[in-house]
Amino acid sequence: MRRPLIAVTTSRRSGWRVFPLVAMNICLAGGRSARLIDGTEIALERADGLIIGGGDDISPDLYGGKLVSSARLDPDRDSLERSLVERAFALNKPVLGICRGSQMLNVALGGSLHQDAYKTYAASDHYRTILPRKTVRIEPGSRLAGLAGKDPMRVNALHTQAVDTLGQGLQVAARDRGGMIQAIERRRDPFALGVQWHPEHLFYAHRQRAIFRALVTAAMASRRDVPQLGQTDRIDT
Length: 237
Prior knowledge:
The chain is an alpha/beta fold. It has a single domain, classed as 3-Layer(aba) Sandwich (Rossmann fold), CATH 3.40.50. The protein has 7 helices and 12 strands. It has a 10-stranded mixed beta sheet with strand order 7-6-9-10-11-4-3-1-2-12, with helices on both faces. A two-stranded antiparallel sheet has the order 5-8.
């Protein structure tokens, strides 16, 4: 059986080094990947699932916030990814949001963000590392608890923004000890999960690999007969 194809968005600045890690995790989970460069609705229709990757801050213009001076923005990517999330749901395709991607998932569904998350949550441990130094607590009964276990989880952290008001149909799946939201999820299908950390860097941890397996499994369940692409081909039209 053909492996499900997962379209992946990445930062223009760092995507060249991040995409191979994401692609490896997708491969380990039983899928194949394609970097979505200049994506359109037609391109997304060729995929079975979607990952919105990490990178730049999201412009507050998308949710009615005020710009902070430290923000690093990519308006073109904001527009692309919001439309991709909306289109994925319309096509019943599963979505995984990673760091910025989790925030975009929330914004695309009508939610808002804290632009300076650690100013709002002063009690949250402020780490900036790809190493698993931060502890998050999984919400009992959440989808995340069902796929990765309910025990506290050690994760990495590179973000400055975080979810504030939840988007439509979303619920909190994890928080850190200061109360900052660290994971969100959709209550109903299609599968949608957003994690504030970077599981692609933690491929050696079985609970992090379970996140990618959940996406690939959901993609397999909702797949359509589409033309095959190579293991790490681009999707650009």
